[in-house]
Specification:
This protein is α/β, with parallel strands linked by helices and 241 residues long. The protein contains eight helices and seven strands; from the N terminus they run ααβααβααββαββαβ. It binds zinc ion (ZN) (2 copies).
């Protein structure tokens, strides 16, 4: 059976439901998409935090530091971490819906292009610890990273950054405790990265502590720039990277 016929039959028996409103129709209705909390300019050009006015950098003490003092060069996120966007991420986390993955990959690619980050050399995700990976069966951020590498035709480095130490949940920890909790948690197992620019994917950015810790490891492995790209962004004012 050819693929078009097969997908036509699947659509007939399982008509696509909108990922936002769950009604039968498009994968995401244009009107439903328009309601989603996209992060558009103005936002901080380092940490990606939405800003009320067109200043290019937010006033968090960390973003005001010089670029050499940061391991993560910048962060951009597709959505504010609001209810609708949050639910999409949670569904991805716990159900691994493949049409949702495809759609989120296209939205991530849109944010990458809006921010002119498609000039990167490679893509990888913040890894899960192997025990969590076994429990869940897949790393949701890894699915997005692999999808994005195909979508943007970039090298995938998925699986080469590993979580070498289990960490306690970051929920409820403040910025500096999150940074401490993540210290030494990741190891690069690939070849030296020699001046490469990498897109580092995660589902949510809260304070940036996890992205930042990964970026530090990638820089030690030779990467020259690391750009964090996440599906959602929590709006804490004091970002921590
Ligand atoms: Zn809809
Ligand atoms: Zn900032």
């Amino acid at each position: 059976m050819n693929l078009r016929l097969l997908s036509g039959l699947l659509d007939f028996f399982y008509p696509p439901r909108c990922l936002v409103c769950n009604k039968i129709g498009a994968q995401v209705h244009p009107a439903c998409r328009a309601e989603l909390p996209f992060i558009l300019a103005p936002f901080c050009s380092y940490c990606g935090l939405p800003l009320p006015t067109a200043a290019s950098i937010c006033d968090s003490s960390l973003c005001l530091r010089s670029p050499e003092e940061r391991s993560l060069d910048r962060v951009c996120s597709v959505f504010r971490h609001s209810q609708g966007a949050r639910q999409s991420v949670l569904r991805l986390k716990y159900k691994g819906v493949s049409s949702l993955t495809d759609w989120l990959v296209s939205e991530l690619a849109g944010a990458v292009r809006r921010n002119k980050l498609e000039v990167a050399d490679g893509v990888l995700a913040v890894p899960l610890h192997s025990r969590r990976l076994r429990e869940r069966g897949y790393n949701q951020a890894g699915l997005l990273a692999v999808g994005l590498s195909h979508y943007l035709n970039l090298t995938s480095y998925e699986g080469l950054l590993v979580r070498s130490r289990e960490t306690r949940s970051q929920v409820g920890l403040d910025g500096s405790s999150r940074t401490k909790n993540m210290r030494g948690a990741f190891t690069w197992q690939g070849k030296p990265l020699e001046g490469q620019t990498l897109l580092l994917i995660d589902d949510v950015c809260t304070t940036g502590a996890t992205l930042s810790e990964c970026a530090g490891v990638l820089k030690l492995a030779g990467a020259s720039r690391v750009w964090g790209v996440t599906v959602t962004r929590e709006l804490r004012h004091e970002s921590q990277y």
